[in-house]
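Sequence in, structure out. Go.
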Amino acid sequence: MTEANGQGAAFWLPMTPADLPAVMAVAEEVHPDYPEDAAIFAERLTLHPAGCLCLADSQGVAGYVLSHPWRLYDIPALNALLGAIPAGASAYYVHDLALLPRTRGTGAASEIVDRLADQARASGFAAIALVAVNRSVGFWQRHGFRETHDVALDRKLASYDDAARYMTRTLEGVAADR
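Output:
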């Protein structure tokens, strides 16, 4: 359980279709430079509901995470539908983690990163990947992620901005045969 700056407990709960308008409002506030259509959020929820959660507090949805299996060293295009989880997905991908300011510093982000790592490990993935934006590289480094550089990745990262970084984390205790 996470305390939301003295405003009561905040809990990570499974996302439902009814949560999508509130999730979109959080996305618009937290990631105004990376807009994505509502269809992107709805598709991620449909394709991998176990990886889509909301942070709920006494005021409603205060954050969310979208995650799903994907290919290591590949970045899904920003604001593009996936169509399907690829056969032979080799990593667990954190598409988006966003928290409203009132929940930052409460431990909610660290809690969900740990939970996603456990979920990825339990699903047999030896790595988690993501694109760090909004000056979040330090946060992800504190959680065991490292920047990964590749010319092909750099071209895809350009669709975000110059500060975006592809990062990966190796999960202990999982055979890297996926």
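Check: Strands lie at 2-3, 9-14, 52-57, 60-70, 91-99, 127-132, 146-147, 165-170. Residues 1-6 have pLDDT under 50 and may be disordered.
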